[in-house]
Amino acid sequence: MNNRGKARAYGNIALIKYWGKRDEKLILPMNSSLSLTIECFYTETEVIFSDSFNEDYFYLNGKLQDKLSTRKISDFIDLFRKAANINMKATVKSTNFVPTAAGLASSASGFAALAAACNVASGLNLDHRELSMYARQGSGSATRSIYGGFVEWKRGTNEKDSYAIPIDDAKWDIGMVIVIINSKEKKISSREGMRHTVLTSPFYKAWVESCERDIEEAKLAIKNRDFESLGLITERNGLMMHATMLGASPPFCYWEPDSVLAMKLVRELRKEGITCYFTMDAGPNVKILCRLSESDKIKNRLKEFFREEKIIITGPGPGIVLL
Ligand code: FM0
After folding, report:
1. Ligand 1 centre and the CA of 320: distance in Å?
2. Domain locations in the chain?
3. Is it true that domain 175-314 has CATH number 3.40.50.700?
4. Least packed by Cβ within 10 Å: which of 6, 115, 222, 317?
């Protein structure tokens, strides 16, 4: 046992979304999802186990965190402590590396980095597949951040076969342009939003069925390097996820007027021959799947309406890195 581990994990953006759990404790999803790991945003986390600690300490960006957020980290580390028979408390130091002024935060890179660091510190030495199942229990989207490029998180049939697998390294002129749109409204967490949707939206069943089709078509498009098909599937899948929320009771919506503006601009760019497609998650930001070689052109158009520092270009990111 090392007692210490440090790792980096990158964020990911889902093209086929995870939206809804069939088991809230084990974080088992209703449907399989597919994402692109991105290099512009990552988390570095160090975990140290020691007999000299009286409790768990969690530092985020250099600041000691309160009881509530430390509790979430403690519960997650308990999974490793239990499996490796460790009784020691831990100190966790985590840093988010985010493009300036972005306001992006990610539980995906956070829990993937924490899982990878715990894996080393606990001496468990799990392989990537097992590690993705541990990360899953911190946050669903973290399952996919274990790997780079295009990644599938398999729905599975039980807690032992719901894990991520790498699909393709995405090194074929794939990129994203992220438009940061500030929201004045209080955010509904994805955890809360998806729970409410599963419970109340009559569109939910149709969503899960559509995902079955979308994920197969998306994987085929990646295999054939058919970027246009992949983009169209991405766009319709994202829109359908947001439609489930509009059908919830009471309904809710993450879009801001500027989100709609960015989405319209993507459709205009497409008419002009630039292949790019939008998707949105549990917030107002718009993520544009594009050819990395065309990302500057896309940024230039967006600059007519959005401040330059709010437009971030990124290529595909790698899987977890041990530090
Ligand atoms: O990433 O309740 O992982 O597939 O980003 O922690 O399991 O924060 F658009 C929404 C991510 C959801 C789609 O949810 O939820 C996606 C979303 P948790 P997450």
Report:
1. 19
2. 4-170, 175-314
3. no
4. 6
